[in-house]
Description:
It is a single chain. The protein has about 300 residues and is mainly β. It is about 10% helix and about 55% strand. Strand 20 and strand 21 form a beta hairpin. It folds into two domains: about 120 residues, no CATH class; about 130 residues. The chain is elongated.
Amino acid sequence: MKKSYRILFFLVAFIVVTGCEEEGEPLTLDDLFQLNGLPTKRFEVILNGFKFETNTASGLKTNTALSIEASGSGASYMLAVSDIVEGEYFGNTDDFKVFLNYKNSGGLLFSTTKSGETSDLEVEITNYDVEKDVVSGKFQGTLLQVNGDLELNVTKGSFLEIPIVRPAFGEMIASIDSERFVAESCLFTSSTSGGFTFDTFSGVGNDDSTILNITVQEKIQEREYQFSSGSITATYNPNTFSSNIFKNQYDAEAGSLTISKIDTINNAIEGRFNFTVRNAFGEPINIFQGEFNALIK
């Protein structure tokens, strides 16, 4: 992407200079993009041979996904991928996180994700500008009618410097044995009972099916807490939908929690943690490289 822009820059300079020697106006940057088949709108796609383009497009980044919405002329699109990192994403590996939805001007619904069908959606994030917080990329695949048999061929799909909005959900990540835990939200709450204070960090992931709670039994400070002191507890539940609490509730027995920053201006608390948890059957799980930026509720 950056290389293409450098080439275009030199081409524009050449055209502007030579254009002064000929009759007529020199080509604009949009003209040059169109001549080279490059996108000029924020969101473009060719649907069964017909081109759709719009500048009405925006992105939403949560802890676990990126979604891009675009609309125009009564039609709307929503493109979703599992992250914002530059690289390729495929619908056939995770069609719940990598998909394209489309609604036409007549209200018919189409999606690359349909029961019994394998998605062929391919998405590539070609550039993520951290400073501007904008994302660019391309995509292609097949849209299937949700309540019918129609198919739409998606080619030359592109999104160009889509601005990203990041709602405040709080963040928590950790390695849980060999798996990676990424919370969809992380909140800090403080309560009192019987004259005692209970300050709790809660990370919730996998559509509310996984919960990790850490509770300090006193008003927190910026320091390290050891589980051996007895003033801190933690629980991990990998399957909140299961009724077998003996199997799925794990309690911490060793480890530490470090509160590195309490930001009352931005309503956030940062920290890290490492500990071992064990269920009622004595089965251990190691939770390590944990980090959080909890939203103060």
